């Protein structure tokens, strides 16, 4: 089978097989994984998602550093290929999606039956493969942790990225007033099209001033929930917009700058600060994560949320996918489409 194998840490934007690339050349001779337990399922991967965490992991900058060599990749969707003798709820041909710590950048992956989610009829497999990490992160953050309510104000930084787009949509499903911050007119237009009430171009607008003008025009006091996958100065500026009792959701640091949240200000303002490492829920509160993903799949099947995929690449073009993520070209998700018939699309 084809697989993208990380042989050393390095720059993922260099083409696989080149001397400077951390990846071995993609070939079809990687061994197909065997069923590892009676309840194991082998899935033929149709599409797998590229997340910022994978970008960091390949460079050795993520909080978890698996031993080399390994096949990267996290959330994916595909079709059941084989099942162990103890599997009761799935059979070959079923359409499923899931997530893994490693391994989805390959034609086949092994998962336990209880880690797989049936993709509802009518839902696109590529969209389902983009759902778990990005939408799961936003759903657990906004619904479970911040308990976002109708009429509250949600400020989403980095709103045109994978998690940002999902946060805007989930915010609207919850009935919130959503302020979305991104860079560039194309991204702002898309965010308006999915329901953002106010959009701000952080490359040229004064974020605080623009948000305050909007809030004043709406008769609103400030921001109740800050969703922050960016960090840096933008985060620090956003604190000026927060209401008493606001929730701060720490999602990531795409800017490369980890912000400082002063404890004395959090005390006076009664702010609640939530660190959100989505993958750790599988270890500590798996039921919460499972219920969250099932609700998201239901929303997807009902059309309450949509998955925006702006870039699709073949496995051998994975370096282009990483480059699109690094250069912030994507509006929504960047996907790797598996199989010999896959075609790249910018």
Automatic annotation (TrEMBL):
Residues 28-336 form the Enoyl reductase (ER) domain. It holds the Pfam family ADH_zinc_N. InterPro entries: ADH-like_C (IPR013149), ADH-like_N (IPR013154), ER (IPR020843), GroES-like_sf (IPR011032), NAD(P)-bd_dom_sf (IPR036291), Quin_OxRdtase/zeta-crystal_CS (IPR002364), Zn-ADH-like_protein (IPR051397). GO terms for molecular function: oxidoreductase activity; zinc ion binding. Signal peptide: none annotated. CDD domains: QOR1. Homodimer. This is Enoyl reductase (ER) domain-containing protein. It comes from Panicum hallii var. hallii.
């Amino acid at each position: 089978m084809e697989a993208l194998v990380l042989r050393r840490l390095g720059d993922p934007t260099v083409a696989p097989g080149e001397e400077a690339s951390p990846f071995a050349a993609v070939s079809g001779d990687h061994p197909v994984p065997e069923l590892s337990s009676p309840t194991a399922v082998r899935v033929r991967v149709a599409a797998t998602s590229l997340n910022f965490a994978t970008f960091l992991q390949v460079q050795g900058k993520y909080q978890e550093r698996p031993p080399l060599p390994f096949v990267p990749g996290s959330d994916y969707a595909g079709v059941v290929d084989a099942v162990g003798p103890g599997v009761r709820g799935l059979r070959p041909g079923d359409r499923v999606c899931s997530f893994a710590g490693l391994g989805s950048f390959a034609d086949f992956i092994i998962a336990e039956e209880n880690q797989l989610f049936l993709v509802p009829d009518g839902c696109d497999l590529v969209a389902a493969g983009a759902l778990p990490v990005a939408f799961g992160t936003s759903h657990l953050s906004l619904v479970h942790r911040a308990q976002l309510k109708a009429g509250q104000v949600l400020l989403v930084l980095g709103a045109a990225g994978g998690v940002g787009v999902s946060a805007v949509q989930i915010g609207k499903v919850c009935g919130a007033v959503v302020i979305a911050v991104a860079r560039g007119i194309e991204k702002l237009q898309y965010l308006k099209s999915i329901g953002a009430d106010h959009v701000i171009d952080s490359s040229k607008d004064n974020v605080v001033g623009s948000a305050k003008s909007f809030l004043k025009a709406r008769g609103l006091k400030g921001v109740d929930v800050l969703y922050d996958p960016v960090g840096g100065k933008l985060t620090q500026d956003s604190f000026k917009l927060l209401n008493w009792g606001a929730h701060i959701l720490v999602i990531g640091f795409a800017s490369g700058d980890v912000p400082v949240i002063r404890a004395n200000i959090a005390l006076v303002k009664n702010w609640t600060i939530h660190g959100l490492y989505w993958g750790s829920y599988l270890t500590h509160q798996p039921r919460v994560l499972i219920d969250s993903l099932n609700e998201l799949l239901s929303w997807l099947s009902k059309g309450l949320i949509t998955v925006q995929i702006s870039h699709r690449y073949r496995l051998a073009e994975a370096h282009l996918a990483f480059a699109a993520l690094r250069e912030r070209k994507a509006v929504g998700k960047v996907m790797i489409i598996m199989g010999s018939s896959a075609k790249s699309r910018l």
